[in-house]
Amino acid sequence: MLDVKFIRSNLKDVIKAMESRNQNVNFDRLLSLDDARKNAIAEIEALRLKRNKQSEEIGKLKREGKEPSPDLLSEINEEREMIQEKERGLLMVENQIEDFILMVPNIPDETVPVGKNENDNKIVRFIGEPAKLPFKPKHHWEIGEALGILDFAAASKISGSRFAVLKNEGCALERAIINFFIDTHKEKGYSEIMAPYLVNQASMRGTGQLPKFEEEAFKCAADDLYLIPTAEVSVTNIYKDDILDEAKLPIKYVSYSACFRREAGSYGKDTKGLIRNHQFNKVELVKFVTPQNSMDELENLVKDAGGVLEKLGLPYRVSLLCSGDLGFSSAKTYDLEVWLAGDGVYREISSCSNFKDFQARRINIKYKNSQTGKRELVHTLNGSGVAVGRTFAAILENYQQEDGSVIIPEVLRKYTGFEKINKK
């Protein structure tokens, strides 16, 4: 979240930043609440000072063997009640400030292009050339069902729409992709971690999923726990309220998890296949870095995520998101979009984001700056490294053969134990 002091000191720039995000935020209300908070604090401090002086007076009288007057004792009791009442009012104002500030998105970095929506995103580069297949390519769901490795009808009976059942070689391929991603990222210096899939409300709030995206989350009401939409939530909260050793930064984690999303705002989109399911697997990359290195670390993160696609021989492109298409918590995001031969389009397979200190302020993650000696907020980054189901789909579509079989990318064969999936 943003700092109220920063907003007050840079109000015009913050308003302009929100407008670039297509957000109309009434900061006058926030500043009014902040003024009320300051006034309440001043009144409470004045009452406490007066009460302390009166307490000293009572102590002096008792040391002299005298009794304080009933009026003085009554006045102290009244002031105690007034302080308690004003403290309750202060708490209400502080809660209102927090509720307000939790709904304000991050400020786009100055290098982010200004734009209204995804049409204004900037394509940075293309990696690899899509193969020209000598036949009409099929969609991955058609290929998978014909090969007996995907079963959407069974998933619908079990859970409803937007779920998938994997079968036979499909199970082996899914595991192979996960293990390949983890092994590759560990070679790049990421430490593997497995964290809970169920998290508390504070963890969701800390990474920006709540309260903004409450409708997207799956909640276990009886326990007040949420199924994670991404491993980012669990992994980032590992260092909640901690002070990290600057010498150990950057800290880099790779984490496999199942992910759960309602996709509440996407009805009618990608209803077939593996692109937009309620449950899916993902390998996530999370970084904790110093502010001065965070933008370089973002560029490295994009390279690490794209590296697995290159090893798989999957063509993709990198897009820099404009201000109007940025995620709520992000200051700067690159999307990696893989080529899907079935539709002949590029589709998002990873988002790599720098949140700067937006999440760290919510979660209270700091480090001690060796130059200043002060405790400062770290910067957090994360990116899919990458989405497993979409990689599965891309492999089926890009490696499909005219006879309906699918060739397994060479780097996966040591994990799958087979080179090809044939029709049964």
Walkthrough of the structure:
With 424 residues, the chain is an alpha+beta fold. It has 13 helices and 18 strands. The strands form five sheets. Strands 1-11-12-13-16-10-9-4 form an eight-stranded mixed β-sheet. Strands 5-7-6 form a three-stranded antiparallel β-sheet. The protein folds into two domains: 4-101, Helix Hairpins; 118-421, BirA Bifunctional Protein, domain 2 (2-Layer Sandwich).
Q: What's the helix and strand layout?
A:
Elements: H1 4-9, H2 11-20, H3 27-63, H4 70-101, E1 122-127, H5 140-147, E2 150-151, H6 152-158, E3 165-166, H7 169-187, E4 191-192, E5 198-200, H8 201-206, E6 218-220, E7 225-227, H9 231-236, E8 243-244, E9 251-260, E10 279-289, H10 294-312, E11 316-320, E12 332-340, E13 345-356, H11 358-363, E14 366-368, E15 375-377, E16 379-387, H12 388-398, E17 406-407, H13 413-416, E18 420-421
Parallel strand pairs: 4-9, 8-14
Antiparallel strand pairs: 1-11, 2-3, 5-7, 6-7, 9-10, 10-16, 11-12, 12-13, 13-16, 14-15, 17-18
